[in-house]
Amino acid sequence: MSGKVKFVHHDKDLSYHFHDSHPFHPIRLQLTLDLLSEVGALPEDAKLSSRQADEKDLLRVHSPDYIKAVQALSMKDPAAEWLARAEQYGLLDEDTPFFAGMHEASSYIVGGTLTAVEAVMSGSATHALHLGGGLHHALIAKAAGFCVYNDAAVAISYIREKYKARVLYIDTDVHHGDGVQWSFYSDPEVCTYSIHETGKYLFPGTGFVNERGEHLGYGYTVNLPLQPYTEDDSWMECFTESIRRVTAYFKPDLILSQHGCDAHAMDPLSHMHCSMRIYNQMPELIHELAHTYCGGKWVAVGGGGYDIWKVVPRAWSLLWLEMSDHPLKKKLQNHPLTPLPDEWIHRWQSQAPVSLPTEWLDDLSRWEAIPRRDEITAKNRETLAAVLQDMP
Ligand SMILES: [Zn+2]
Question: How far is the CA of 355 from the centre of ligand 1 (A)?
């Protein structure tokens, strides 16, 4: 079903690292790569090395003065005039503090997503994954929410110019995909869809149902803000119904999906109560839609996910197993509690401050029910109905 698939990576992605106690830690990528290698899911011929994005690429989305500021603040000892302006560019706060080498690392992140897009649009691959990407909060002239350059927005702009293809951006991170949304808010050829915890309670505080796009782009922005403590069934019901409708009416030429995995109950930065099940099922549906509407053209990127030991490596590995039609993915349908490889657990357990998981999916029989489940499900259905109501 899938044809050729590419796993895009460059070790420079690992230097996108604010500092050791920052929640956005590159060890997430290493843990995932190692887990996939251990199960034999990363053959050499699937790997593709990223190029670095150049200034022309970055200028598709970001302003020249912002790029200059990022470059200046990437020096070991930034000049005083730039230090004085760091705050204005969003590079002085706790979330997204500037660090030495930031411009180069961020350019490789953007370049990796461009490499994935190029592989798919040129026809050399049907699907491509770049887990280093997904920095969806970066704005035109401001860093935000751990994101310096917006790789997805740059990649979409590149696809529009070079291939004139219609792009459906699907953002399943628990945080609203604001940077990508605003970049294409008035563009009818790019549809941005984001499912997330409502901005009432969570960063970045946007992504409400009434954000629908503007001018010619009206109707091509779709937001599904869900209630805190949403569980698997309600999340999947809202996702499935809305994304099927959006894809059927927009009829994209390519899907670019962002796979933050921070709606998991164990994630420390959100308030959702989902399990690994949604990270097993959402990629299945996106995969199906890519083949139904786009001749298979599907590029996927990473994103948030701050339980770096217990959640991210499993969620992102499940995504690649789906993209590459790996037999293990089929096995998990009947045996969700298939054990993770002992070798992987042993290799990392001594570095982990928590007990590593032992099974691919979560054993929900050990989870306590959420007391307000019915109320939460009903509220989410109201939101879903409001989204579907205005859809052609
Ligand atoms: Zn997030």
Answer: 23
Nearest Cα neighbor of 175 from 109, 225, 129 is 225
Q: Return the CATH number at 235.
A: 3.40.800.20
Query: In terms of residues, how long is the chain?
Result: 392
Residues 213, 199: Cα–Cα separation, whole Å = 17
pLDDT tens for each residue of the chain, 392 residues long: 456 999 999 999 999 999 999 999 999 999 999 999 999 999 999 999 999 999 999 999 999 999 999 999 999 999 999 999 999 999 999 999 999 999 999 999 999 999 999 999 999 999 999 999 999 999 999 999 999 999 999 999 999 999 999 999 999 999 999 999 999 999 999 999 999 999 999 999 999 999 999 999 999 999 999 999 999 999 999 999 999 999 999 999 999 999 999 999 999 999 999 999 999 999 999 999 999 999 999 999 999 999 999 999 999 999 999 999 999 999 999 999 999 999 999 999 999 999 999 999 999 999 988 889 999 999 999 999 999 997 87
Q: Please give the angle made by the CA atoms of 187, 188 and 191, to the nearest 5 degrees.
A: 90
Number of domains in the chain: 1
Long-range contacts, 357-362 (Cβ 8 Å, 24+): 357/310, 357/314, 360/276, 360/314, 360/318, 360/332, 360/336, 361/275, 361/276, 361/277, 361/280, 361/314, 361/332, 361/336, 361/337, 362/275, 362/276, 362/277
Those residues whose C-beta lies under 8 Å from the C-beta of residue 69, and which sit 6 or more positions away, are: 82, 85, 86, 89, 91
Q: Which of 208, 367, 186, 353 is nearest to 276 (CA)?
A: 367
The rounded Å distance from CA 258 to ligand 1 centre is: 10
Token readout for 243 is: 């994304």
Is the pTM value of this prediction over 0.70? yes
State in Å: Cα 175 to ligand 1 middle: 4
Tell me which residue range forms the domain holding 371. Answer: 5-389
Query: How many angstroms does the Cα of residue 44 sit away from the middle of ligand 1?
Result: 30
Planar angle of CA 220, 235, 196, nearest 5 degrees: 50
Return the H-helix or E-strand segment holding 254: strand 254-258
CA of 7 to the centre of ligand 1 (A): 22
Q: How many CA atoms lie within 13 A of 225 on its CB side?
A: 18
